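User:
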Amino acid sequence: MLTMEDERQVFDAFINSYLFSLKYLQDFLSAPAEKYGVSFDQFLIMHEIKMADGDVTLMELSKAHQVSRSAISRQISGLLDAKYVSQQTDADDRRRRILRLTDEGNQVEEKLFKEGLDRAHNSLNIFGADRISTMLKFINEFTREVMSKDNEKMAQSSKTGKLS
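Assistant: Predicted structure:
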């Protein structure tokens, strides 16, 4: 059993990891996209549109990213303004908006994808495939076991008005 001091040290280590490592990772991932005036999330949207087998809609992206429709809408709006994405109304269902990359959007996505691969190769050269794989497995497990349960608690507390 951990003492209060041990718990405090674990908490402080968690905070320091967040403040430095995780924020650096976010900056590391975002930096290439910023050259083109897009966020890393917007690049991911562009990549998903490009790699999709069929049509991609705002609702499908919202589900895939596990965010609200308005959150995805804001991201798409920036891509539309930058002329990286176009939107077409589905002929069979006028409520459906189909998203496609423009020629410029395709070029930007390709450049960002290649730069992302280069960065991934550099990380593999530094840490090796086994360590990267172990890290990714841990992050996925953390997400599944901790974050999803926290989200369930938050949803429950918003319904009842009580934090547990």
